[in-house]
Design a protein that fits this description.
The structure holds two protein chains of two kinds. By secondary structure, chain A is α/β, with parallel strands linked by helices. Chain A has a domain at 57-205: Rossmann fold. Chain A is globular. Chain A has helices spanning 41-55, 107-119, 166-182, 187-193, 195-205; strands at residues 59-61, 88-90, 98-102, 125-129, 157-159. The model of chain A is unreliable at 1-13 and 17-36 (pLDDT under 50). Chain B is an all-alpha fold. Chain B has one domain. Chain B has twelve helices and no strands. In chain B, helix 5 (131-162) packs parallel to helix 11 (283-290). Chain B starts with 7 loop residues before the first helix and ends with a helix. Classes of the chains: A alpha/beta, B mainly alpha. Chain A binds chain B through residues 29-30, 50, 53-54, 56-57, 59, 77-78, 81, 83-86, 88-92, 94-95, 97, 121-123, 216, and chain B through 34, 38, 41-47, 50, 53-54, 56-58, 60-65, 212-213, 216-217, 220-225, 228.
Chain lengths: 216, 308
């Protein structure tokens, strides 16, 4: 019996085109009336206020998937001090808004990342850190790591590099805050709308699938 | 002026004002703590209004999970305990607007309310089903049982010295100058109570209950969104209420709002500055600590009041 582990081919083509919603301002946590493009102006104003609060109080889940997690530590120190931007580490997905996929993602960790991501309350954002999340980086031909993160989870901000320095991370956070304020960071909504597509991809790569259909 | 001079509706109005004010002040103190701790560590730190941003952000979140009734009542119990505690203590002595609902024997009720919030939180967090919550609750209740002893002894000593269990009369007994404060007339009780305060506030060195490093965030592990906001505002008002109680018991209460704000600030920051210097105790070390010198000081305070 051949015990060599063969990595399944990831689906080609990327996320479904043209289905990404263009809501004026990201608001609300459930799909509903707020998704309508012609929202009344007071709703839009309220959404802007909500987004301002959300952008200035980012709680990052303290979960490092790969070597990039080592670049998260200096952010808390006096040299970079992410707390001045309102960014804080939370040790539980229930209280987090931002998930940083820090570097290479083994198929085994992907399961845990999916589980953690789905347990986070919406609105939630994913920051993909390092080249490994974009094209696999130096692990592109590894037998047990994924190459493209956005096939499995919606990514809002990519931070390129191997490894990106903490300055790049701070810049990435500022870009995320800008996008949240403008209502453009709606990856979580994309995930909910295209859940079937994402689940199909996840099940293709996770061969020993034992997760529920959605981890509440 | 006695509290009875205000009729019910104006009284209710001022109750709402003082509760909202206490939450607002507690959040500001939370921001100042984060700023001060950042400066101690050589960082810039978040803006002072950061707790407000966090609070409103979590209010705007929604959840779709279900953990059972007690889970949802936990933060409510916690907030109810904090508000109940706050409303039984006169904030500004002699001012009918901020005198709240002080009555004879309310000190016993106050001590009950301090326990009530934590107990409700424990029941609620346990129903969340997360093992980390349960571990943290065990730690929290052990620590609470330990610091309750010196605190109760200090309260008994003060009550025996005044001859009353009414916070109002205890404040009245301390009027007439700084020398009349129980901080100076009964220093042993003050030592016991202020050491117990360190454990009550759950900052370092007694922050193992919330231990963000090993047991993620303690009892609130499973709480999110609006529950989190109820807990944050409950924690804010609870912190202020404890300091107001200590101000009434040991620092002669306050006759103006400004005095109350300043005294509460200094009592709160007593635990912060101790926490900035001392590393964390483990639970059994904390229990041993509270049953040591603080309890001895409390027993000595009671004996001193009985003998002299």
């Amino acid at each position: 019996m051949d015990d060599k582990i063969v990595k399944p081919e990831p689906p080609l083509g990327g996320p479904p085109q043209g289905s990404r919603p263009h809501a004026p301002v990201g608001d609300g946590c459930f799909l509903g009336e707020e998704m309508k493009p012609q929202a009344p102006s007071y709703k839009e104003a309220l959404a802007r206020i909500k987004n301002w609060f959300r952008a200035n109080s980012l709680w990052v889940m303290a979960y490092g998937t790969g070597c990039g997690a080592i670049e998260l530590r200096p952010l808390a120190t006096a040299r970079f001090d992410m707390e001045r931007l309102g960014i804080a580490m939370r040790p539980t997905p229930r209280q987090s808004n931002v998930l940083i996929v820090s570097g290479y993602l083994a198929v085994k960790s992907l399961k845990r990342v999916i589980r953690s991501y789905e347990q986070m309350p919406s609105p939630k954002w994913i920051v993909a850190l390092g080249s490994c999340t974009i094209n696999g980086g130096m692990y592109w031909d590894s037998y047990n790591t994924i190459n493209r993160l956005d096939l499995y989870l919606p990514v809002d901000v990519y931070i390129n590099g191997c490894m990106p320095r903490p300055e790049a991370l701070v810049a990435g956070f500022q870009e995320l805050m800008r996008r949240i304020k403008k209502g453009e960071a709606d990856g979580w909504r994309h995930y909910m709308e295209n859940l079937d597509w994402y689940k199909e991809n996840q099940k293709k790569i996770i061969t020993d699938w034992d997760l529920p259909e959605y981890n509440w | 002026m006695s509290p009875s001079e205000l009729s019910l509706l104006p009284k209710l109005f001022w109750v709402v004002v003082s509760v909202v004010g206490a939450i607002a002040y507690g959040l500001v103190i939370g921001g100042i703590i984060r700023k001060v701790m950042a400066r101690i560590q050589g960082r810039i730190g978040p803006p002072v209004y950061q707790p407000y941003l966090d609070l409103f952000k979590v209010i705007f979140q929604r959840t779709a999970t279900w953990h059972g009734y007690m889970f949802y009542l936990g933060p409510v119990f916690r907030a109810a305990g904090a508000i109940g505690l706050f409303l039984l203590i006169p904030v500004v002595f002699g001012d009918p607007r901020f005198d709240n609902f002080s009555f004879n024997g309310d000190l016993l009720m106050v001590m009950y309310f301090m326990f009530f919030g934590c107990l409700g939180m424990a029941l609620g967090a346990a129903e969340g089903g997360h093992p980390h919550s349960v571990v943290a609750i065990t730690r929290g209740l052990s620590q609470m049982t330990a610091y309750e002893l010196p605190f109760s002894l200090a309260v008994v000593a003060i009550a025996a010295q005044t001859g009353s269990f009414s916070v109002h009369q205890i404040v009245a007994a301390q009027q007439g100058g700084v020398g009349h404060w129980f901080l100076f007339t009964n220093p042993l009780a003050a030592v016991a109570a202020f050491l117990a305060f360190l454990g009550m506030n759950m900052y370092s060195p007694f922050d193992i209950v919330l231990a963000p490093q090993e047991i993620p965030i303690g009892p609130p592990t499973e709480y999110n969104s609006a529950f989190m906001s109820a807990m944050m505002s409950g924690r804010a008002i609870f912190g202020v209420a404890k300091c107001v109680l200590y101000m009434d018991l040991f620092l002669g209460g306050a006759t103006t709002i400004l005095a109350a704000i300043v005294k509460v600030f200094f009592i709160y920051f007593w635990s912060i500055f101790v926490g900035a210097v001392f590393p964390r105790f483990r639970t059994e070390q904390a229990v041993r600590f509270f049953l040591g010198w603080p309890t001895a000081a409390g027993v000595a305070a009671v004996l001193a009041v009985m003998l002299f």
